[in-house]
Design goal:
Blueprint lengths: L8 H6 L3 H15 L4 E3 L6 E5 L10 E2 L3 E2 L10
Antiparallel strand pairs: 1-2, 3-4
Length: 77
């Protein structure tokens, strides 16, 4: 069930730290699987959680309401 993911030299230059590059790669992988990331209901910032991530392992999720910022100190609102 594998697939090949191609990362270019330009991709690596555009994401100079490992966290950002890892996020970029994970997003490409999720796009391949047609998974979408939830966004904060307050500011719209994309969370690191896909729609199928169980709520028990999420930070910032409010049952009955939805996903809010996973890092409150960076929420824009």
């Amino acid at each position: 069930m594998g697939f090949k993911l191609t990362i270019t030299e330009e991709d690596i230059k555009n994401y100079p730290n490992d966290y950002e590059l890892g996020h970029f790669i994970r997003v490409k992988y999720y796009e391949h699987l047609n998974l979408k990331f939830d966004k904060c209901l307050t500011c719209g910032l994309e969370s690191p959680y896909t729609e199928d991530t169980h709520i028990d392992v999420r930070s910032g999720y409010v049952e009955g309401a939805g996903q809010f910022c996973f890092q409150k100190e960076i929420c824009k609102k």
